[in-house]
């Protein structure tokens, strides 16, 4: 599959970039530190602004996982996940073995990727989940912060996940590959209205 086919095509000429070029743009100030972008198939994709429920949920997950995580494993919020020379994503969380260096994060080392979605839910459940599957990320959680549902994607095959299961607010979701300390029940978090 061609990654560019996931984001649509039209007849406009396009200039694609590499991860290295985009990182250099950031270094020289062409992309501001506060600009949030992802690179998909060489094309820069701006990311939506985050709402307060998104940020509250992210904080609650960080506090819970920070208290519970075993010393053998780590998680990191909003880091660059370099998947190919022309593709990187910025998931809300990645869970991995503590011995893995950040530069080595990839499909074979990421145990769980988490996207928290409010205004980007359609994109995260659609195109973005296809990208994660394409690169073999074995487990992806897309958390619908408005509907309070965790969409658990497992078993990537080709460009899709063979298993996608919605878990609701009172369900305890246990990761298949990361330690059970990273389990999550949305009802246990202090999200507020």
Attribute tags:
193 residues; tt1808, chain A; Nuclease_put_TT1808; two-stranded antiparallel sheet; 6-stranded mixed sheet
What's the helix count?
3
Going by helix content, strand content and strand pairing, the class is alpha+beta
Name the overall outline: globular
- Please identify which CATH superfamily we are dealing with: tt1808, chain A
What's the oligomerization state?
Answer: single chain
Order of helices and strands: HEEHEEEEEHEEE
The residue fraction in helices comes out at: 10-25%
CATH class: Alpha Beta
In the predicted model, the low-confidence regions spanning at least 5 consecutive residues are: none
Largest sheet: 6 strands, mixed
Distance between the termini: 41 Å
CATH topology: tt1808, chain A
Number of domains: 1
Explain what this protein looks like in three dimensions:
By secondary structure, this protein is of the alpha+beta class. It has a single domain (48-188), classed as tt1808, chain A (Alpha-Beta Complex), CATH 3.90.1570. Helix content is 21%, strand content 30%. It is built from 3 helices and 10 strands. It has helices at 19-28, 52-68, 121-134, and strands spanning 37-40, 43-46, 73-77, 81-84, 87-89, 93-97, 110-117, 139-144, 149-157, 160-168. Strands 3-6-7-8-9-10 form a 6-stranded mixed sheet, sandwiched between helices. A two-stranded antiparallel ribbon has the order 1-2. Strands 4-5 form a two-stranded antiparallel sheet. The longest helix is centred in the first third of the chain and has 17 residues, at 52-68. The model has no long low-confidence stretch (mean pLDDT 87). Keywords: Endonuclease, Hydrolase, Nuclease. It holds the Pfam family Uma2. This is Uma2 family endonuclease. InterPro entries: Nuclease_put_TT1808, Restrct_endonuc-II-like, Uma2. Residues 31-166 form the Putative restriction endonuclease domain.
């Amino acid at each position: 599959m061609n990654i560019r086919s996931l984001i649509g095509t039209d007849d406009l000429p396009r200039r694609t970039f590499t991860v290295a070029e985009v990182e250099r743009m950031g270094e020289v100030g062409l992309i501001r530190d506060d600009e949030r972008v992802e690179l998909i198939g060489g094309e820069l994709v701006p990311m939506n602004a985050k709402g307060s429920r998104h940020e509250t949920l992210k904080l609650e997950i960080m506090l819970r996982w920070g208290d519970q995580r075993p010393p053998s494993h780590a998680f990191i919020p909003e880091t660059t996940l370099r998947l190919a020379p022309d593709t990187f994503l910025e998931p809300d969380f990645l869970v991995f073995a503590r011995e893995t260096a950040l530069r080595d994060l990839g499909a074979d080392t990421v145990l769980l990727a988490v996207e928290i979605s409010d205004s980007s839910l359609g994109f995260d459940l659609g195109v973005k989940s296809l990208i994660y599957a394409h690169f073999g990320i074995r487990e992806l959680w897309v958390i619908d912060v408005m509907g309070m549902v965790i969409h658990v994607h497992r078993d990537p095959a080709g460009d899709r996940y063979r298993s996608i299961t919605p878990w609701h607010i009172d369900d305890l979701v246990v990761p298949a590959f990361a330690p059970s300390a990273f389990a999550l029940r949305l009802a246990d978090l202090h999200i507020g209205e």
